[in-house]
Design goal:
The protein is an alpha+beta fold. The chain has an eight-stranded mixed sheet with strand order 4-3-5-6-7-8-9-10, sandwiched between helices. The protein has a five-stranded mixed sheet with strand order 12-11-13-17-15, sandwiched between helices. Bound molecules: 2,6-di-O-phosphono-beta-D-fructofuranose.
Length: about 325
């Protein structure tokens, strides 16, 4: 593993940008500190009284896990004090979170899913934090309006995720490729372990909750059938892998190639995953690594969110595999 720390890497990237003020590096450094605090609790999940639900239900109608609530609190508290953020949006909070006027503020807007895959916490399976960084229009001052935050993913200035797995990893992009860092617990630093990550153009794995087959539309069923059937041009059938934790399924897809799918179904007619805190940041990462992300027909990064918690169908991964899905959806009109 290289000895380059994530801070050194950020400073090097900052030097390449002539207008850099250091605010973005500050933001990422505070995000990294939050991730380390969350990682510490996740790694002790069976030892501390942090397992199980809080008994409450979040804005998405899902049971809030204790660790979910803890991760959300850490991120809101820390990032509000970074001095470079004006507003935040969390998967766990119904409304926009405004940084108090008593604190120094900047132009950045942070959207995050504090602990993605949290229904897996109690069984010691990987979970993660997904983040998206947006910027306020230059010169706009005063309280942040929701309309300013509802930006298409292509306006993100940075995006990524932290994966709390056998080791803790930080994967992010600022629009100059994707880099991965692994936390060395003995020194408490994220070290560059995956430089300039590229997703294979085509994979051998499809990832989907196939239990939803009866509630999918014909196009979604045809996509899965396509990856299961043997083909002549490509090596098929593909293998199926599904953790049920988006960050974990996405991370494997990024490294090995293939496709992750969460199509719309009869219950989740607009898909289950959240556009702003899940699909858009991962779409930026995958595109920067040479892959693609669509909702079936449209590029995820071009979608304008209608609301903070808008949902979207997601097909993300190797470019040729995503193209195969797009072709099927186009045929279905
Ligand atoms: P979870 O409900 O455990 O938080 O976005 C939520 C998410 O997990 C994703 O991490 C995961 O990919 C998906 O939902 C799993 O949904 P299903 O259980 O419906 O397959």
């Amino acid at each position: 593993m290289s000895e380059v720390t994530v801070t050194e890497h950020l400073l090097m990237e900052e030097r390449l940008s002539p207008h850099a003020t250091g605010q973005f590096t500050t933001l990422l450094n505070d995000l990294i500190l939050s991730a380390k605090i969350i990682a510490r609790s996740v790694s002790k999940a069976g030892l501390l009284d942090v397992l199980g639900g809080t008994g409450e239900v979040n804005i998405q109608g899902e049971n809030i896990q204790k660790l979910d609530e803890f991760a959300n609190h850490v991120l809101i508290y820390r990032m509000a004090r970074s001095g470079v953020i004006c507003a935040m949006g969390s998967e766990e909070n119904a409304d926009l979170i405004h940084v108090s006027e008593d604190l120094p503020r900047g132009d950045y807007i942070l959207i995050f899913d504090p602990l993605d895959g949290s229904s897996n916490i109690d069984v010691n399976i990987n979970v993660g934090t997904i983040f998206s960084i947006l910027r306020r229009k230059q010169g706009v001052k005063g309280p942040v309006m929701l309309e300013e935050v509802l930006q298409p993913g292509m306006h993100q200035v940075g995006a990524g995720y932290v994966l709390y797995g056998p080791s803790t990893m930080l994967i992010f992009t600022t629009g100059h490729g994707v880099h991965g860092f692994t936390l060395d617990p003995s020194v408490g630093e994220f070290l560059l372990s995956h430089k300039d990550m590229r997703i294979p153009e085509e994979g051998k794995i499809y990832s989907v909750n196939e239990g939803n087959w009866p509630v999918w539309d014909r196009a979604a069923q045809e996509c899965v059938t396509y990856f299961k059937n043997s083909g002549t041009e490509r090596q098929r059938p593909y293998s199926m892998r599904y953790v049920g934790s988006l960050v974990a399924d996405f991370h494997r897809t990024l490294l090995y190639g293939g496709i992750f799918m969460y199509p719309p179904d009869k219950k989740n007619t607009h898909g289950k995953l959240r556009l702003m805190c899940e699909a858009s940041p991962l779409a930026m990462v995958v595109e920067q690594a040479g892959g693609k992300a669509i909702d079936g027909r449209r590029r995820i990064l071009e979608l304008l969110p209608e609301k903070l918690h808008a949902r979207v169908p997601l097909f993300i991964g190797s470019s040729r595999d995503v193209d195969a899905v797009a072709e099927i959806y186009t045929r279905h009109g």
